[in-house]
Amino acid sequence: MGTVFVLGALRNDDATSDRDGAAQPPAATDAGRVPEAYLGRWSGKAAASGGTIPLGTFEVTLRQAKPGQRVGTVVQHDLIGNTCTDVLTLKSATKEELVATGKGAETNGGQCAQTSHTVRLRPDGRTLGYTSDDPDAGDPRARLTRRK
After folding, report:
1. Cα(44)–Cα(96) distance, integer angstroms
2. Where are the beta strands (DSSP E) in the chain?
3. What is the DSSP pairing of strand 127-133 with strand 98-104?
4. Dist CA 140 CA 97 (whole Å)
5. Nearest 5 degrees, angle CA 108-CA 110-CA 112?
6. pLDDT tens digit string along 6-65?
């Protein structure tokens, strides 16, 4: 989702009209881009079902994207050695919250939840809160720290 700034919208000046007075489309901004604070590698312990079931470690990798583009992945390493990967497609990103659609990678094994779900990432100081509305996986939650 992009933000559009309209300069001179209430007056007829060169910023919004051409020489014949016809309206020109306003310039778009990069508001749909992912804020730098999210970018990079993050990891932390995850749990499901309100924190009662440990899920192992989540590794989240985020890159620059615009809405509708792949923004990253979530790799889960569970307690018995299985690995599941979700591909994240950006819905929106602000400094308060990044929202993406997660979907199991086609290469996942049968133990992995494959349904589409909403993932929310929220910065909290030096950590990133991870929540997923994915009942098939127990609605995972995690507190992630940046990795180098």
Report:
1. 20
2. 40-48, 53-62, 70-77, 83-93, 98-104, 117-124, 127-133, 141-147
3. unpaired
4. 17
5. 60
6. 223 323 334 434 444 444 333 333 556 899 999 999 999 999 999 999 999 999 999 999
Give the number of residues written for the chain. Answer: 148
Spatial CA neighbour of 15 closest among 3, 4, 27: 27
List, in order of start, the domains of the chain with CATH numbers. Answer: 1-31 (no CATH), 36-147 (2.40.128.280)
Please give the pLDDT value at position 23.
41
User: CA nearest 42: which of 121, 108, 106, 109?
Assistant: 121
Among 46, 53, 100, which residue's Cα sits nearest to residue 76? 46
Rounded mean pLDDT, 104-113: 92
pLDDT at 81 over 80: yes
Q: Which of 64, 1, 2, 74 is nearest to 34 (CA)?
A: 64
